[in-house]
Amino acid sequence: MTTDEALQALVSREMPFGKYEGRLLADLPGHYLGWFARVGFPQGELGRLLALMYELDHNALRHLLEPLREQRA
């Protein structure tokens, strides 16, 4: 998956399980992403996407996803 594809996935894919099931990955709260960072991200593509979203949140870069959201609207 390219970086562009990964960023698109953050604004289009939903969390498949847990407390925030059904919420877009880009809309997951920072404390939840931080929890994954502490206990470990899931294996595979979902884990990589959650780790990317964690980095965006942790570095205050969520705003970079706004143009992608607008494209989807």
UniProtKB/TrEMBL annotation:
**Superkingdom of the source species:** Bacteria
One Pfam family, short name: QSregVF_b
Q: What is this protein called?
A: DUF3820 family protein
Task: Write down the species.
Answer: Noviherbaspirillum pedocola
Q: What is the lineage of its organism?
A: Bacteria, Pseudomonadati, Pseudomonadota, Betaproteobacteria, Burkholderiales
